[in-house]
Specification:
The chain is of the alpha+beta class and 155 residues long. Helix content is 50%, strand content 22%. A six-stranded mixed beta sheet has the order 1-2-3-4-6-5.
Length: 155
């Protein structure tokens, strides 16, 4: 930053554009995902969705969608976060994130997707409700097995 400033860059404008502004569409999407937020009883799994209809209505840019999954992942106690987004009337993209121990690449792989241990994605034929219902038992089972293993190791 100091080098840029020395070269004459307007660092205040850069800071505002990069870190301190969000489009109205991004804020509308954030509001929508928070209104549709689901958190498991144990608090380790959270998910939300953006319907295909909402995507069509807002017509967001990819920059409006970038980082929305972190709104879910950043919730205290959440290990696995998923954002389901209707990309077509009967096609859903799921973005998966984890914090510490969960391998979301493994979860995405079960459904034909992939990525990395902490960040993965998958496309699923069906609307967002179907995709969420399809993936929930898998996520819940992984959490159950982790809790059981952790408790077993503590003994």
């Amino acid at each position: 930053a100091a080098e840029l400033k020395d070269l004459g860059a307007d660092t205040d404008s850069l800071r505002l554009k990069l870190y301190e502004s969000a489009s109205k569409k991004k804020i509308a999407l954030m509001k929508y995902i928070l209104n549709n937020l689901h958190i498991s009883d144990d608090g380790q799994y959270a998910w939300s969705s953006i319907s295909h209809q909402m995507m069509e209505e807002l017509q967001p840019e990819s920059t409006d969608i970038d980082g929305l999954i972190n709104t879910i992942k950043d919730i205290e106690g959440v290990e696995i976060a998923i954002l389901f987004r209707g990309v077509e009337a009967n096609r859903t993209k799921a973005s998966l994130r984890s914090k510490v121990w969960a391998d979301v690449n493994q979860i995405a792989g079960i459904f034909g997707g992939g990525g990395h241990v902490r960040a993965s994605g998958v496309s699923i034929d069906g609307d967002v409700e179907y995709a969420a219902a399809l993936m929930a038992p898998v996520v819940e089972d992984i959490i159950r097995r982790h809790v059981a293993e952790t408790e077993s190791n503590a003994l």
